[in-house]
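Review form for a predicted model. The reviewer records the input and the model, then writes brief findings.
Reviewer: anonymous (R2)
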Amino acid sequence: MSVPFRAIHYFVEVARLQSFSRAAEQLHVSQSAVSHQVKLLESYLDKPLFVRKGRTVMLTAVGQSYFQEVVGALELVESATRNVKENDTRQVRLAIHGSLAVKWLIPALDDFRERYPNIDLTLQMLTQDGQFDSQWADCFITTQPPGTGYQRYHLYDETLKPYCSKSVWAEAHRITDPAELARFPLLSAISAFANGKPGTDWQRWFEKVSLRLPKTAKVHHFSHLLLAAEAAKYGQGIALLNEFMTTEEERKNSLFELPFHSIRTDDSFYFVYPSSTAKSPGLEALGDWLVTLCRNR
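Model under review:
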C-alpha cells in the first residue's frame, strides 16, 4: 500500500482543530469521510493517533510526535504550490488583530508597498489569538507565539500610557501629583490584562507609584483598548493606551499623552510564520520591515 497522503492531510486538520466535525467543515467533506481517512492512516501506521472521549479529541503521544513531523512538510508543499501558481508575485497573507491593523499597520502600508512592489500583502482579521491555520494565513502577529515549528520576530512589549483629548489635556497636563488624575473620569479597558477584571489597568498604574485607586474615582469600563481610545478622543476622560493603538495623526490632533509614568501589560507582540517556509523572501522581507517599523515608532 502506498503512503496515504490524503489521510495524512485529513489527520493534520483534525489535529490542528482538535475536532473531526470542524476538520470536515474546513475540508468541505463529510465527518464520516474524515473519520474514514484517519482510521485508514492509523491502520497503515498500526498505531493509534487519537484518544476519543465523547466529543473530545486528543492526540496520543505517537500522534503528537507524528503531527510535529508531518505538519511542516505539508506546509512546505502548500507554500511551494502557491509560489508556482503565483509566478513572480509573492502573495503573503498576514493575520492581525483588527484594531492593531487599523491604528498601526494600515497607515504604514504605503511604505511597505513602495519598498516591496512585488509582494502582494493581504490582511486577514485575527479573531482568536493562538490559532495558526496556514490554510487561512501565511503569517501572524500574535501575543501567543508557538513554542516550536515557527520563525519568530519580537516586535514590541505592550506599554500603557495615559492619554486624553485636547480639552482634558489643557487642565490635566499641569498636574504633577499622579493621585490628582483621579479627579477626572478614568477610562479602563478590560482586555488590557489577562485576568479580565475591570479596572486592573488603573489599579496597577496607581500601584506603580505606591498609591491606591481612590474609591471615589469614576471609572468607566470598555471591553477593548480601541473603545477606550475613542472615548478618550471625544473628551470622556483619561485612558491608559498602547501607543500602537493610536495613529500619528491622532497623537498630533486629538489624543495627547500626559507626562506621567507608564506600565507594562502581560503581552508582547510577535510576528511568526512556519519554519517550513523560512526561506520565503516575502515572509522574511515582511518580518524585517515590521521589526524596523516598531523600532522607529
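Findings: The first strand starts at residue 50 and ends at 53.
Further findings: The CA atoms of residues 111 and 289 lie 9 Å apart.
Recommendation: see findings above.
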